[in-house]
Amino acid sequence: MEFSIHKATAEDASIIATLFDAYRMFYQQPSDIKGATEFITERLQQNESVIFIAFINNVAVGFTQLYPIFTSVGMQRTWLLNDLYIDSSARGKGIASALLDAAKDFGRSTNSKWLMLQTGITNAAAQSLYEKNGWHKETDLFYSINL
């Protein structure tokens, strides 16, 4: 099954919102599609985040969201990969790895020093995914990858 990855625009907010809501529910938050749509719309309209969306047959099945940060010591931009979610129907197809690759490519294209992320301490599947894709565990919750 083939999939594609696209960088989101503000017009994609409603497409992302359903996945974002499912992502939040995974972390024991109540469903809030209206709030999810508003949050994603604001981040994209204000250029406060970059989101990559994965599609199978024109249906959004996953996303990753990055927030810009900076390293004072390295005097460069870096990115916080804050969210990564794949719909359960699309897991195991390499989509998460492709989204991580899109994030790394984007980081390189913006001359960033590194990417970092935080994951749940009990989310063993995510930790395994990050390590398989070259990310290095910094603490129990944080991973990073040099670019």
Automatic annotation (TrEMBL):
Record GO terms (molecular function): acyltransferase activity, transferring groups other than amino-acyl groups
Gene3D superfamilies, per database record: 3.40.630.30
Family annotation (CDD domains): NAT_SF
Residue ranges of every copy of the N-acetyltransferase domain listed in the record: 3-147
Keyword Acyltransferase annotated: yes
Top-rank lineage group of the source organism: Bacteria
InterPro entries: Acyl_CoA_acyltransferase, Bact_Acetyltransf, GNAT_dom
One protein family per Pfam: Acetyltransf_1
Signal peptide: none
Keywords: Acyltransferase, Transferase
SUPFAM superfamilies: Acyl-CoA N-acyltransferases (Nat) (SSF55729)
Full protein name: GNAT family N-acetyltransferase
